Amino acid sequence: MKMIFLWVTCLVVITGCNAPQENHDQIENGGTKIENKSENSNFYGTYEGTLPAADCEGIKTTLTLNKDKTYILRSEYIGEGEKSATFESKGHYNLINGNLIELSLTSSNEKSYYKILDGSKLMLSDKEGSINQGILSEHYILKKK
Predict the structure, then answer these.
(1) Domain annotation covers residue 32
(2) Fewer CB within 10 Å: C terminus or N terminus of the chain?
(3) What CATH number did the domain enclosing 140 receive?
(4) What pTM, to 2 d.p., does this model score?
């Protein structure tokens, strides 16, 4: 039940914050440019960040991508009391077009997506690789440890 809640929350965050948009290779936000490099051979490793959430202070997220195409995703809901919870999922991932990572949960058909911005950053995206370009866009980035 908790796992379903986690994935539904992630889906709501993605769809609620991403208006229809074209695929872009750069994000410009407050003078900050984040460039996307489509050739990414060194994206393996652990990425961290705090994603926005509607019902808590944020979701501290740690994603580890292994060379054997497996991943571990740890999501810690930051809040007080019942709002605080930690979930961990494992599964396999696929690299699509050299710059989009598709996470597949082993126990179901649920998927989530991260776009590779460069060798040290991933950004939560949709299945087309579209990314949030609004004022909160920088909060959807996970940085390599």
Answers:
(1) no
(2) N
(3) 2.40.128.640
(4) 0.71
